[in-house]
């Protein structure tokens, strides 16, 4: 990817601590009555330009909560369970988003064999 001759390389190889990986999970709940939110989960989300692209806001909030509660650096293989309910023709809605995955820490970054520096062009 480049913009006017400036190259941005997004490939990164990391040395992960698989020995201390642990199962992590988090749940966020949503409720609206007549379109007005009655449960607020804050505005913090976990997103990335490539790794978690395409996730809905609720899924990003669940990932953020899982990462914060576990104290781990990365959540591997996140899997989402979404449960929705609606009553009174949609006047009262609830949604529960649960994420489970493996939390791992980063021990360090590896040298990038694919790196192309701007000065090498």
Rough outline: elongated
What structural category characterises the helix and strand content? Answer: mainly beta
**Distance N to C terminus:** 14 Å
Report the oligomer.
Answer: single chain
Order of SSEs, N→C? EEEEEHEEE
How big a fraction of the residues is strand? Answer: 35-45%
Please outline the major beta sheet: 4 strands, antiparallel
SS elements, strand count: 8
Q: Mean pLDDT across all residues, rounded?
A: 81
- State the low-pLDDT regions, or none: none
Q: Number of helix segments?
A: 1
* Largest beta sheet: strand ordering: 5-4-7-6
Task: Please tell me how large the radius of gyration is.
Answer: 19 Å
Helix content: 10-25%
Describe the structure.
- The protein has 121 residues and is mainly β.
- It has one helix at 57-70, and strands at 2-3, 6-7, 14-16, 22-33, 36-37, 74-87, 92-104, 106-109.
- A 4-stranded antiparallel beta sheet has the order 5-4-7-6. It has a two-stranded antiparallel sheet with strand order 1-2. Strands 3-8 form a two-stranded antiparallel sheet.
- Strand 4 and strand 5 form a beta hairpin.
- The longest helix is centred in the middle third of the chain and has 14 residues, at 57-70.
- The relative contact order is 0.30.
- The model has no long low-confidence stretch (mean pLDDT 81).
